[in-house]
Amino acid sequence: xxxxxxIEQHKIKHQDIMKRLEHLSDREIIEYFDFENMKKNEPDxxxxxxxxxxxxxxxHLNCYFCACPxxxxxxxxxxxxxxxxxxxxxxxxxxxxxxxxxxxxxxxxVSYIEKNFDRxxxxxxxxxxxxxx
Length: 133
Ligand code: SF4
Description:
Order of helices and strands: HHHEEEEHH
Strand content: 5-15%
Largest sheet: 2 strands, antiparallel
Number of strands: 4
Mean pLDDT: 96
Distance between the termini: 21 Å
Shape: globular
Radius of gyration: 15 Å
Number of domains: 1
Number of helices: 5
Helix content: 25-40%
Bound molecules: iron/sulfur cluster
Strand order of the largest sheet: 1-2
């Protein structure tokens, strides 16, 4: 699956959940997306839920902004909009530079999600795909 295909599928899953949560406040929605709650109530949202595996080891991992609104995917490389000091690079044999977010927890922190909250995940992710880099 390409990243573009994944993002399309994930958008639909996110929209389906958000339709059911429309009546909740922003804060309640963010709480709902806590890893522990999602694992129980939305088992199909992420394949890692089945094995109780967190993508990042942190106490209050929040899944609302998975993947990351600051991630950028271009034709020649992927990169981080804010050049997070926790980010890295992996170069594949074909020369493509992959942004490595393994050590970065920014988009999974409640404080970041609250500050940048958007009920439309699609809108929050609108700058992720870039064509000219
Ligand atoms: S390094 Fe952090 S902020 Fe940057 S794209 Fe990756 S997860 Fe997002």
